[in-house]
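Internal tracking record. Fields below are filled automatically when a chain is submitted to the structure queue. Please do not edit lines marked as system-generated. If the sequence contains nonstandard residues, flag them in the REMARKS field before resubmitting.
Queue: standard
Priority: normal
Entity type: single polypeptide chain
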Amino acid sequence: MGLKKGPFVVAQTFSVLNPYGGTDAITLAADGDFEIVATVDVCVTQPQKTQVSLDSMAQIAIETQENPTTFEVTYEILRNGTAMATINNEMDYASPSLQRHTNFPNFPVLDNCPSAGINTYDLKITRVATSNVTNIFVASRSLKATVFEC
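SYSTEM-GENERATED OUTPUT FOLLOWS
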């Protein structure tokens, strides 16, 4: 008898009660600011027989000064410091209440070519450009890696 082979899951998750600057929320105060908001390490012994499925999510909260508001944020999945996937999220919106907007972007990525050894996967979020935005907060967030060996 031994361990049954199956997918292996590793995750880092943060739950933030108040997305507008509450405990564990990350502030991106100026254009160009970025943060690594979640990280997982995956050990790969047989790279040619391994796939890593990555699922990520981040709650983005915006405080505005006036209507209309424009903001652009990029989300990157990095493997060992190198970008594997990038999504640009640019929004233009007008709101009846001038002060807050919340967005929940997420995206899955499949790594078919992980390196042998420890692979570090990061979720990096960058405040690219804004108009009429006071602060951008990264609140609840997660990065999950599911490892499949074929």
